[in-house]
Amino acid sequence: MLPTLLIVDDERATREGLRSALEEEFDVYTAAGTAEAMKILKSEPIELLLTDLRLGADSGMDLLASVLALPEPPVAIMMTAYGSVDTAVEAMRRGAWHFVTKPLNLDEVEMLLKRALRSRSLESENRQLTRQVQQTHKIDRIIGKSAAMNEVSELIQQVAPTRATVLIEGESGTGKEVVAHTLHHLSGRPAAKLVIVHCAALSPQLLESELFGHEKGAFTGAAQRRIGRFEQADGGSIFLDEVGEIDPSTQVKLLRILSERTLERVGSNTPIKIDVRVIAATNKSLRGLVDAGSFREDLFFRLNVVRIHMPPLRARREDIVLLANSFLEEFAKENHRPLKPLSDAALHLLLTYDWPGNVRELRTVIEHGVVMSNETVIDIRHLPQFLLAAPASAEDSTPPAKIALEKPPGFNLHALEADAIRCALAAAGGNRTHAAELLGLSRRTLQRKLKDLHP
Ligand SMILES: Nc1ncnc2c1ncn2[C@@H]1O[C@H](COP(=O)(O)OP(=O)(O)OP(=O)(O)O)[C@@H](O)[C@H]1O
Ligand SMILES: [Mg+2]
């Protein structure tokens, strides 16, 4: 079945010209004014609307308002006379998806309609996915549906109710702390505390007394007895973040807790029994630190009872859309903004970027998009610009001709065009079909332009 398209223009010649150019690809309806258009929209399932901004006595802007109030509005593209781009931009601000200027380039119109259609299905898929996030692909706060994350989830569910010590390894921003929270929540001791210690943030002496507490007068400045973090976590869990940074003398004490389940406060010889579940994390390889001689091997074995490896985001791209949608919802709520989908171009950019900062970086990028977009979608221009400048991922694309992003080339139109083409190729990971889509061109036109650039 062909997608349905309604063309609204007060000039009969334009309507019929467009109809004959597009009827092979679309099921075309036409109307000369607002009333006729609304009648069709209410009786037929129209997916795409292409309307002139000036409709004789009627206004395309009014039509747009009525269309957007429909329960399932079509994607609207406005046609505008050359020179009235301001009005077209205003139409986009009010919810039109895009605009084309007259005289029309039929190639461009067709390409835009196809992109609009894809964006519509992607957006509705996005909305559905956002709804699903709450119900599926989520244990506690961990979102993910990739095979790698399913494995992580299974492991968590398996070990959470036990007392086994867990070592979480993974690059920065992959979700190690989220996993620690989940392990604790699913531990079956929900009322108990999760105590978090960032081991790299404290000097060796401070860390020791932070972890194990001290007696009054144990060292200069110890004016009061202090209960350490292990004692505070008694009956619950302790999360030792960046455990690889712990100095050798504290490592010895930690080993004792793990093997004997007792500790002594600094300045005391009285052993105190504690019942704490230990979860440790590191973004370095703890095995590597053992080999380098900075981490005790016996402590490594005690910590490494169950090891959870958090895969980097670039190795589980299937999770990107799901995570992005969840963050869209979170930041829309937080900023009291309507929930908007990502445009297909923006989504494509997110899917091809390499994410050195992993999920944390994705979260910040989505927050930026939510805050910057005043339109009905979040598009590439609302995302941080470093995403475009970054070399695209090498993993899932044909290698592009080496892309060097130079400084903006001033006002020369050819140079600007060449720059836009380079950026789009970079964003599309060198894939010319995707780059053409990003540029709003047909693949053929892009090929021609590339030939002109590199004859
Ligand atoms: N699977 C996930 N589902 C939902 N949110 C996630 C997920 N993974 C990470 N996040 C979010 O990403 C951000 C970074 O996660 P987290 O702090 O757990 O990373 P980390 O591995 O501990 O990083 P670092 O090594 O820098 O401390 C947090 O805001 C967290 O909520
Ligand atoms: Mg962390």
Short description, anyone?
This protein folds into 3 domains: 4-104, Rossmann fold, CATH 3.40.50.2300; 156-310, 3-Layer(aba) Sandwich (Rossmann fold); 316-453, Helicase, Ruva Protein, domain 3, CATH 1.10.8.60. Helices cover 46% and strands 15% of the residues. The protein has 19 helices and 18 strands.
Kindly list the characteristics that best describe this protein.
19 helices, Helicase, Ruva Protein, domain 3, Rossmann fold, elongated, binds adenosine-5'-triphosphate, 5-stranded parallel β-sheet, single chain, alpha/beta, binds magnesium ion, 3 domains, 455 residues, 18 strands
Structure description:
- The chain is of the alpha/beta class and 455 residues long.
- It folds into 3 domains: 4-104, Response regulator (Rossmann fold, 3-Layer(aba) Sandwich); 156-310, 3-Layer(aba) Sandwich (Rossmann fold); 316-453, Orthogonal Bundle (Helicase, Ruva Protein, domain 3).
- Helices cover 46% and strands 15% of the residues.
- The chain has 19 helices and 18 strands.
- The strands form 6 sheets. A 5-stranded parallel sheet has the order 2-1-3-6-7, with helices on both faces. Strands 11-14-17-10-18 form a 5-stranded parallel sheet. A two-stranded antiparallel sheet has the order 4-5.
- β1, α1 (12-22) and β2 form a beta-alpha-beta unit.
- The chain is elongated.
- The model is unreliable at 394-410 (pLDDT under 50).
- The structure holds adenosine-5'-triphosphate (ATP) and magnesium ion.
- Adenosine-5'-triphosphate (ATP) is lined by residues 141-144, 170, 172-178, 283, 323, 359-360, 363.
